[in-house]
């Protein structure tokens, strides 16, 4: 294919998929010509027969690979090319807000599709993710996803970090507003083609964007414009509700504000959400909590793995007041027998509008540690580290597991090793990365008909049970009843 003809097709793609107008078309062509240092010599260019985002990505990737560019530089260049044919950030905001007045669903669809078409959202990679629903005879279903769209960093990736000066601290983090148009480097992914929507929520400046590696449908991130640490408070509850007034068809969630039980980015306040309902939100009530202070709000304990309270009603202020009381009481709660103590307690909030009322779920979290569990008493226990070792953030806590890509290969290898009956010494010599999989291999040896997928399903249940501060046995329920009584609702 001739490069100039591909660029001509790229411009046509920009017109059809990204709204590139006639005047900007001339501008974009000259930017592309300068990027590649090629110019037409007066000839009429015939567009190559490429009409989709994946075709252009494949062509440009091959082009840069022939130039011997490293992977991160290829990613940078491709993001820059799509940025050239994309509408400017201010134009996107104007279109979004115009559509928002008509119908919020039109606005979010516009922004999401723009992200897919300008290769900010890696749709093709996302579709490669391996997903299934884990069902159980007498327990809620869970969702399992092996995420192939966001690769784990290997030694080569880590070595590339040496190419970036250590004092380079711009942007401060991957969520900061300064990422808008950021070219990226060996340490950070490019963001030239990202588009953000500013929002005023409770008098504060926030902005909405989509995740390039969507973990669920229309995976959105709502970011505080200020680079400040995450918190869980009445202020945060109010902002969650304020967002739903703007985008009522989305679920909005927040990670907790403490290490171990929080998300991977605790230094910048942000929420996640999308056009999605998590398994936790589908859970039935285990029982209703009798209370007198919030007559328009139903408060219940959910029949789910971790300890979750649901507040339902039509009055946001009353729900916020009740949630704030629960948070305050839980922050200061002590249960010595369970190593629950002030300073280690917080909640993970989940909010949506279900038909004509709000549903707010508060998952009780505790980050206490012990000699037996130095990584966290209510964290993943060591026997399950092979599947999941990182902190259990809000997505997993809601019943959707995002597991690393390496697991797809390791599942096959574990089954192979178990079937062959290899000793630990023998299989570790051949597969050193299976060190954390000994419990799984031993189990498969004992149960030849079991598959690794079955074991992962059981692991999902076990992990959420690990994170539950009040277990579902009689003793755990007795401790939960004491806490509920202390709320004095």
Q: Which descriptors would you attach to this protein?
A:
three-stranded mixed beta sheet, 489 residues, alpha+beta, 39% helix, 17% strand, 13 strands
Description:
- The chain has 489 residues and is of the alpha+beta class.
- Helix content is 39%, strand content 17%.
- The chain contains 16 helices and 13 strands.
- The protein has helices at 3-18, 22-36, 53-66, 71-84, 89-102, 104-117, 123-127, 155-160, 234-246, 316-331, 394-397, 406-420, 424-430, 438-446, 452-467, 474-487; strands at residues 130-136, 139-147, 197-201, 204-210, 220-224, 251-253, 270-274, 285-288, 297-302, 308-313, 345-354, 357-366, 400-404.
- The chain has a 10-stranded antiparallel beta sheet with strand order 3-4-5-7-6-11-12-10-9-8. It has a 3-stranded mixed beta sheet with strand order 1-2-13.
- A hairpin with a 5-residue loop joins strand 9 (297-302) and strand 10.
- The longest helix has 16 residues, at 3-18.
- The N and C termini lie far apart (71 Å).
- Residues 152-162 have low confidence and may be disordered.
- Main β sheet profile: 10 strands, antiparallel
What amount of the residues lies in strands? 15-25%
Beginning-to-end CA distance, first to last residue: 71 Å
Q: What's the arrangement of strands in the largest beta sheet?
A: 3-4-5-7-6-11-12-10-9-8
- Runs in which pLDDT lies below 50 for 5 or more consecutive residues are 152-162
Tally of helical segments: 16
Rg calc: 25 Å
Return the string of H and E elements: HHHHHHHEEHEEEHEEEEEHEEHEHHHHH
Give the structural class: alpha+beta
Number of β-strand runs: 13
Mean pLDDT: 94
* Percent in helix: 25-40%
Described by the principal axes of the CA atoms, the overall outline is: globular
